[in-house]
Amino acid sequence: DAKTTQPPSMDCAEGRAANLPCNHSTISGNEYVYWYRQIHSQGPQYIIHGLKNNETNEMASLIITEDRKSSTLILPHATLRDTAVYYCIVRVGNTGKLIFGQGTTLQVKP
Amino acid sequence: DTGVSQDPRHKITKRGQNVTFRCDPISEHNRLYWYRQTLGQGPEFLTYFQNEAQLEKSRLLSDRFSAERPKGSFSTLEIQRTEQGDSAMYLCASSLDTGGGYTFGSGTRLTVV
Predict the structure, then answer these.
(1) Which residues of A, range 19-78, sit inside 8 Å of B by Cβ?
(2) Strand B10-13 with B31-37, pairing
């Protein structure tokens, strides 16, 4: 199963864009990249997912490199409520199970 | 439908006791997953169901663990003869098998004393 690598922590100023990187160099052709976040003591919250094209929704944008070995989650205007652990995840094709890494703790500062 | 529900939210049990957790998924979701999360770590996959069929179990799921999903609706996860190492957050998630997002519940936090 493909693994992901993320920096353990990042800071971002409130109102600025937060760019969270992820490496998934062993990803297979049919494996999707998902991003979730988790605020302390809550279940993970879905943010966005993609296969090879860039994706955007009301929460964030996902940029996937052409070789699919890495991706970046962009929160365009970070707020204090975006402080959380962000997980970059590979979804295994047939089963749909999600393989979580250690995640990045994003601290948004005023 | 208010999402994925898990019950109880917290459970404290003595070592050696049996515990059972329940998960009610989003009604139209045919896939249901169980994960375990220990402090400071990402969730780890335990098992999943497609409708009522349990299709995969992780090596993390020892013989003391059993999961069911009768009639393809709610699911239960039972741990027999609990050990202190079982202390963790147990998360349930559901999805459609056609892809898209997975919805997680708030989890059941188990403490074995």
Answers:
(1) 32, 34, 36, 41-46, 49
(2) unpaired
